[in-house]
Every structure is written in C-alpha cells, then in structure tokens.
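Hi W., the adenosine-5'-triphosphate complex you wanted:
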Amino acid sequence: MMFIGPYKIGKAIGRGNFAVVRLAKHGIAKIKVAIKIIDKTRIDEENLQKIEREISILKTLDHPNIVKLYEIIRSERYIYIVTEYCGGGELYEYLIERGRVTEVEARRFFSEIVSAIDYLHENGIVHRDLKAENILLDKEKNHIKIIDFGFSNYQTSDSLLNTWCGSPPYAAPELLLGNVYDGKKADVWSLGVLLYILVTAGFPFPGDSVDKLKRAVLSGQVKIPYWVSVECSDLIKKMLVLNPKKRFSVKQVLSHRWMTAPHSARSASVILTKETFSPRTTSRLGNQSPRLDAAIMHYMQQHGKWTADQINEDVLKRDFESDIYATYELLCDKVRVSTNDANANCHEEYTRRGSRGSILSGKANVEDPKPLTISAHQLAQLGLSASPDCDSDDSSNSELYDDSPTGSMRNDRSAKGQIGLAINDQTYRGEQRRHTLCANENLITPEMLAQIPFTSNLHQAIMQQQTISALTRQLQPNAAGPSHAPMPGWYPTAIHGLPAGLSAVSTTDYTRMIPVPNNERRASAGETLLNQTLTPSTIEQLQQLVQQQPNENNDNVEEEGQGYLNKFGGKRNTVHGMSSTMIGPANPVPRHAPYAKQNSGERRSSWASTTATVQQKSNLERLYKQATQAQDPAELLLLPQLQKEFQELLLFNGVASNSNQYVVFGQRPHTVIGFSTSVSGTSTPEQQVRNNGDEKVKSLVSTLSFTHVVDELKNSLNQLQIPFEESNEVVYMEHEMRRLSLPTGVEIGVAVLPPEQKSHIEFAILSSDSPTSELLCDELINRLRIIDPNSVTE
Ligand SMILES: Nc1ncnc2c1ncn2[C@@H]1O[C@H](COP(=O)(O)OP(=O)(O)OP(=O)(O)O)[C@@H](O)[C@H]1O
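Structure:
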C-alpha cells in the first residue's frame, strides 16, 4: 500500500502530455480523489510554468462544473495536483459508447459546459483546450466537470493572445491561421464544435490533416445533419462563425432560444448547484470571515493530530499546499454528499451564523458544539473510521485498485499467498480510451503489457526487510545488518539500517499496465515514486533514492535513442517538444470520422506553439502520421526526413541543433535482461532453458537503454555488496550481450534487440538452486521495474 501524504494511491486513470493521473483515497475523509503527478525533471521550463499557471488558476476556481482542487503537494521532483475524482469518465468515452445524444441530453450537458465557461470568462480566464476528452462526467454520468487547465490563461477584456494551442479539430479559424486571437471567442468556437459533436457524434469539419481541416473551416460551410433541430442548428452556426467579432459570446449562447427552451435542462443545472455542488467552505462571501465547522475541526484534531490553531490558520488561508485545508474541504464535501442536504453544508451554515472572529488574531471563531452543523456522531456514521489507515469502507477499495470485472489479479495473488490488493491497470480505462500523450496506439500490443511493482504496506515492508536482511546475511555472511526486525514505530529509521536502496523495493506484488511508448519516462517517473512505500516522512528520502539512480540522465537516454534512430531509422514514437514549440502527440492529425468505437484508439491531444508556423506544423504532422502508421518498412524512410524537418524547425526557432531536442519516433530497442543460476557460470540463458526442463524462468524486457540497465544492475549489486564479474563483448543472437556473473552461480545477461525482434529471451532459474538466488533475481528485477515500470516480464 502506498501513500502520498494522506492519500492512498490506486490505479492510473489517465495520462496526459505531462502527467499521469491516479485514483487515490484520502486517509481521513475516505473520499476518492484524482492525483495528477508531474515529474518536473521531464518537462522544460516553459511547460513547468504552464503547470504552475494551471495550479494558480485552479486555486481560484469554484464552480460546480469545474473540477475542484483540493491540494498541491510538492517534492523536489514531483508535483501532485489533488482534485475531485470524476468517476463517470470522459464525455468522449460516453459518446463513443452511446453515439450521439438526444437534444434534451445534449442541452443538459451543454448548459453545464457553457455555465462553466461563462464563469471562467466572467473571471477573466480562458480555457483554450475545450474538447470532449477534457470534459468529464460525475459518477452518475449526470453532470459535467471540466478539467485540464493546462492551456488556460488570463485574458483581460481588450487583450489578445498569440499562443497556438488546443486541439486542431476544436481550434478556431483565427488559431488555424496563426493570428492573434480573442481567447474567449476561441472558446466559443470550441463550444460550437462540442455541441455539434454531442448532437451528431461527428466533427463539423472534414480533414485528416491540419491543411484539409483549415480549408474546410475557412470555407465557412458547416453541414448539419437533418435530424438536428432548427434551433440547435442555429446555435451551432452562431458559434461556428468565422469572424470572431461576429461570433456569439458565451452570454449570447446562454440566452439563445435553444438553451432556454421550455423543459430544458437548465433547471437541471440549477438542481445540480443546489444539491450536489460543494462550494468551497472557505469561499469568502461578502465581507464575512468564514467560520469553520466545529465538529469537523474536532474530528480533525482527533484524527489528524492537528491543533485548532493550525486548522484555523491553514483553512482560513485556503492553503492548498497544506493537508489540513484539503482534509477540511474533503470532510465538508463528504458530509454534504452523504447527507445530501444543502442546509447541512458548512458554507451555508457559516454564512447564516455570521462571524464573531477575533479582530486581533484574525482567526474565526469556532462556535460551541451545541449548534453544530455536523455532529461528531454524524461524522462517525459517515464511515469516517477512527484510524486513517483503517479502511472501514473498503468495499470501494476494489475500485481504487482494480476495476477488472473478474479481479483476476487478486485471485492470482491470493493463490500465491501474497498479501495486498492488486492494481490491475490492464483494465485501466485509459487503455480503452486514449492516452493523452504522444503514443502511437498501434504500437501498443497485448504483448507489451508490462508489470510494474506494487508497493508493500508497512507490514510487507517489514517482512520484506527481514527477508532481504536474511538474504544479505546469507550472501554476505560478514555483512553487518539489522539483527532484529524493526518495530513499526521506527520503520523510517530502520530503512537506514538496510543496505542502501533496499528499503523501497517490494518483492511481492505487481500490477499490470500498458506501457506507453512515449512519455513513458515521465509517467514512469511518477510510478517510480508511487511504487514505493511512502509515508509523509519518507517521501523525500525515497525521492532522493530514486534520484540517486546512477544513470538518471536524460541526455544519456536521449543520446542512446538518437544513436538508435540513426542506426535503425526510428524508435520511440515521441515528439519531443522544444522549449517554444510543443508538437503534439498521439495522433495530432484531425479527422472527420464520427466518434466511433473503432476510432477510440485515437486521441486529439493538445499542442501549443508560439513560433512554429502552421505550415511547419502541418508538414510535421503529415510526416508524423505517415511514419507512425507505417505498415510498409519502406515507409520508415520517412523518419529521417521527419527528423530533418524537425531539425529545421528547431533551427528556424533559434534552437541549437546540438541541443537535446529532436524527434524520436517508433519504438525503442528492447533491452533484455535475463537472470539465470547456472552452475558453470558460462552457459547462455538459452542453453539453460534447453538443458533443463525443470527450471523456473525469469526474464525482463526493459524499455531503458542497454547501458542504463547494465549500470543499474551493477549499482544494485554494489549496494547489496554482492561481488560480480563483468564480461563484455559477448555476442548473443548477433547482438552485444553484457554478462554479470555472481559467485553464487547467478548469471545475468543483458542484450539489446531491435524493435522488430520482439521475442523475449527466457532465462532459467533451477528449482533446485538456493531460494536466495531467486530472491536476489527478484530483487534486481524489482529495482529495474521501479526505474522502468514499463518493463515487461513473462
Ligand atoms: N479529476 C479527474 N477525475 C477522473 N479522471 C481524470 C481527472 N483528471 C484527469 N483525469 C483523466 O486523466 C486524463 C489526463 O488528465 P489531464 O487532461 O488533466 O492531463 P494533461 O497532461 O493536461 O492532458 P493533455 O495532454 O490532454 O493536455 C484525462 O483525460 C482524464 O481521462
């Protein structure tokens, strides 16, 4: 079980260009949240600024149809953005599953979307990346939640913007032309596309490239199917007006007759606000100081071990970087949702009661328990258990970890007598959906399913520590190690008593997830951290541990990739953005296919540029599409051309060609690591398999570079104080193989295979051999998985 601060971390529920999003559960409030995890080392300064802007904008927002921010957790390497969890998935998925919706339903959804955008525009904010993938539904799939403020920005009424961003099929003509633009009107254009999609399940403008799309958009023609009502058509046309000055504003959209039709869903919106919207408890209304709910404060003091003063201070400051504030808001939301009684919400309560806060301290008063909004008893009834670690309501934990209908992972593991819950990302929605990143979904095959380590809970960690200590003693009889099992209370200290690096490694539990052959290093990094046993006190220590990996060097990885590109004509299907230009991703080429199941692997990702011309971008997109969809090996020849094109673009933008930014497409070479326990120490793993029919097999195919893997293994062995001999220049299946021979008879072979040669090499571990050798192999495999969650075992 793994924690980030007070959040128990569960399965991955989404990926973006810069982030992996995971489901999590708050330890005290027992509410599910979504945590977007950004690895700062994987993004450039410009994108980091964008994320900071996203955070600062999210902090100001408070609207029922906009995802609610709870907390920001920062570490040296990661930023964790904790928001409310929208369990109904993306509108995009909804449309794929059901096709177009009725106008009544469309009106209900659209009203909520427009209401949120109106709120943003009223507050001088433009979203700039409205698309069906960024519109989520609540658990009941009744209400809209807008997410992804990565491209949002402030816009004063008379200013214009110039950053090319968004997703082409939703981009306004002025954006496609590369002009400066009014972000609000650009949002309205995207709203027009969204309404069109809702009522037709198709895109308004045909085009499988930006060029074609641009032509279609600029033609000024939009064909609306016959089944769309006259009023709805009229509204769509008023939003899809070429001239932004003549295009509707959001206010005009809101008052259009289709929106205000009798029996329209606007009333539903009102109901939404009244019944289910949880305004920030600490929103300041008028001049009144907010007053905190005494029962919740009391509860927090009991269960969070905070003082009343601390709670007062952080909550009233609306300190998003404090777990106190998040806990308070989550508890209020829990109470609201559970009682489903608007009168029970803290917001109304403190408004009604007014404030008698201290003028001197600036702190709000906490009233006597008597007129409590929420009684402690009520809280107890809500299933808020006494112990933050105790999952009294863990019927829902299955969703946190494993949404597979069969729960097969869990069964497998219980068969092995292992402890803990499975994370089964095989059924992770993102798989059926689209990863947000630059992956070519075609390249993701079932064979590429990877296993990544699952973190152990405290008990497991201690057990594991004992096992590993025993292992270390066996392997290194003279090695000093802890002579007794650590008590739980001093667990973090005990970590230091272990051979360096052992503490974070789990040997027992794995989860499956789809490796995404792009940006996976970003996602991996997040998972690297997540797959360790974390407590607030150990997060930084563990991050340091992760960072201590000897080859945590982007440049090396990229250089290796570059070499491979030159050698094999292509590898990862990643477009590495340069500082000023971020060319998107998975399939940035717009299309006019209706949303349909067979197209669900595609995703229109967001991309932005301040300097690249539309022409340059469309060239790159065309080449990118051809290259990544290449069936014929001859088409791989496009890759160098693509590379050249991109280099030119870099030069054009004044980026030095020797910088580390370049296009990398296709797949990385597979680095194969095999573990065998040979008696002679000389036979190849393949021979082991042939020679002994009774052996166990351990193999790992990593997406990391050959040198990275070898260095990592050597580093691990050094940390474990296990001597080894390294033999170079061994050729295995015509490729270089590095061999690490251990005195205990364990042989480790590392070989590079080209992408087309996907066969995994299997390595034998003799069942008769000492279990310590097997444990050691597991340990090394786990360490590799921690730094490369996308590695595959069989
Ligand atoms: N609060 C949430 N609840 C449920 N799922 C979420 C939530 N936030 C994000 N997701 C899922 O994660 C995906 C990626 O999140 P998000 O769009 O915020 O990342 P991003 O890096 O900004 O993406 P993009 O590359 O499209 O800009 C979403 O499309 C969605 O499926």
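The chain has a mean pLDDT of 61.

W.
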